[in-house]
Specification:
It is built from 16 helices and six strands. By secondary structure, it is mainly α. Helix 3 runs antiparallel to helix 4, helix 4 packs across helix 9 and helix 6 crosses helix 10. The chain is flat and about 115 Å long.
Length: 446
């Protein structure tokens, strides 16, 4: 109870933005400065678009994040929301115009890059920007709230770079450019809608915080005109939100169908005289296509399996069996086995290539070790010829670790002699350095 009383007493202190808010003129100058989009800002945008496009093309998350950090796109978007909040129609027009110019140059730049690049396959980073949903709305909204709150503070922070990364304005535009370059309008529409979501909800969250802070209005607005502007704002938000809710619903339904179908396949599709070679689950078409190899399934077995679909909440699911029997004669059996073998090899080509590379590496190490051993044996024989006092020689590479953690390599030589070598010890050490080319030689005499 004491905690609740403390929170109730101090809640306004913790959540109030006003005490630490910077001067209104400084907030206004910060936002208006980011709206400008010519000269340096435009060149930075073009370079950032190229970087982001390359990152998407080669599927590099680190490169994409770097491009988002240097992108100046956030300025005009927040300018629109700030202009609506203080009812500055000139700022709204200027921000909207600059944002349109930025979008146009971004699309053209990314489209040119993807048109000339030899890497035409859509990477996972590209594909992840083509299906926006309600969660993207939430990210843009809360990211925009964090961004505008950071702008209103006197102290500098790393909030805005974090907002730039979280809301991801650059990658959707680059993906839309990829759609234009490849003629894939599905990619273009999905990616551009994601960018539109981010822009609208960053502007909307900026508008809400500006109104909450009660920053002074720039123009006199009668009550009816103010209501009409707010209606336009909320209508735009609702129109932008509606498709994302539908897409989120479809995404959840597809995910549930995928899990249920996988459970059905793993539990029910087990047969004594045949096995499942491959399964293709299509949530969009509500179908499960299974390739079965072995004894052909009877109609009664397939009907039983179809009747079990409702147990997994897979009503109205199309269950398709592609049967490849091995009971059609010796020639068909050989053909089927060859086809299966080719498919297995194709599916595991990466693992096979990886194993081959490891085998080759080990073989090279063995050959190097054998050459090393032969060299050491030759050195030992030659040393005993030059120095008859030597009875046996062991020559090997060794490691030593110093107190500071540095590891040194040296040539360790163990010599057993019939009598003291005396001054010849120095000659042996110098001879080994010349013969092996190793400066660090340690000799142990027994």
């Amino acid at each position: 109870m004491a905690i609740l009383r403390y929170l109730r007493k101090n809640l306004r202190y913790y959540f109030n933005l006003s005490p630490d808010t910077a001067e209104n003129e400084q907030i206004d100058a910060n936002i208006r400065g980011g709206v400008e989009f010519k000269g340096t800002n435009l060149w930075v945008l073009i370079f950032a678009i190229f970087i982001a496009s390359i990152g998407l093309n080669v599927n590099s998350t680190a490169v994409i994040i770097g491009a988002m950090l240097i992108s100046p796109l956030m300025g005009p978007i927040m300018g629109v929301g700030y202009g609506m909040g203080i009812v500055d129609f000139e700022l709204i027009r200027k921000s909207g115009k600059n944002l349109a110019v930025a979008v146009l140059f971004s699309l053209l730049t990314s489209a040119v890059y993807f048109f000339v690049t030899p890497l035409n396959d859509a990477s996972s980073e590209l594909l992840s920007r083509t299906s926006p949903a309600f969660w993207d709305v939430m990210i843009a909204f809360f990211g925009g709230l964090a961004g505008i709150v950071a702008v209103t503070r006197k102290e500098k922070s790393n909030v805005l770079p974090g907002v730039a990364i979280a809301t991801a304005l650059m990658p959707p535009l680059c993906t839309a450019g990829y759609g234009l370059a490849t003629g894939n309008m599905y990619y273009f529409a999905g990616a551009f809608y994601l960018f539109f979501i981010n822009s609208v909800f960053i502007s909307f969250s900026t508008f809400l915080i500006v109104r909450y802070l009660k920053l002074p209005l720039r123009e006199f607005v009668d009550a009816e005109k103010g209501k009409r502007m707010r209606r336009y704002v909320y209508l735009t938000v609702l129109v932008t939100l509606a498709p994302s809710l539908y897409l989120a619903k479809k995404l959840v339904e597809d995910s549930i169908f995928q899990r249920a179908a996988e459970s059905f396949v793993n539990t029910e599709l087990k047969f004594e005289s045949s096995f499942v070679l491959r399964t293709n689950i299509d949530p969009h078409q509500r179908s499960i296509e299974t390739v079965v190899v072995g004894k052909s399934l009877t109609d009664s077995v397939m009907q039983v399996l179809q009747s079990k679909l409702p147990n997994y909440h897979l009503e109205n699911t199309n269950l398709v069996f592609v049967q490849q029997g091995l009971d059609g004669g010796e020639a068909e059996t050989r053909s089927m086995r060859s086809a299966m073998l080719r498919e297995i090899i194709a599916e595991n080509r990466y693992l096979i290539d990886q194993k081959d590379a490891q085998i080759l590496q080990l073989q090279n190490k063995i050959k190097a070790y054998e050459r090393h051993q032969n060299t050491e044996a030759s050195l030992a024989m030659e040393m005993k010829t030059l120095f008859p006092e030597i009875k046996s020689v062991v020559i090997t590479d060794a490691l030593s670790r110093r107190q500071d953690g540095v590891v040194d390599t040296f040539l360790l030589t163990v010599i057993e002699s019939s009598r003291q070598l005396g001054d010849k010890s120095k000659n042996i050490s110098e001879w080994l350095r010349i013969k092996t080319g190793v400066n660090n030689v340690k000799i142990i005499y027994q």
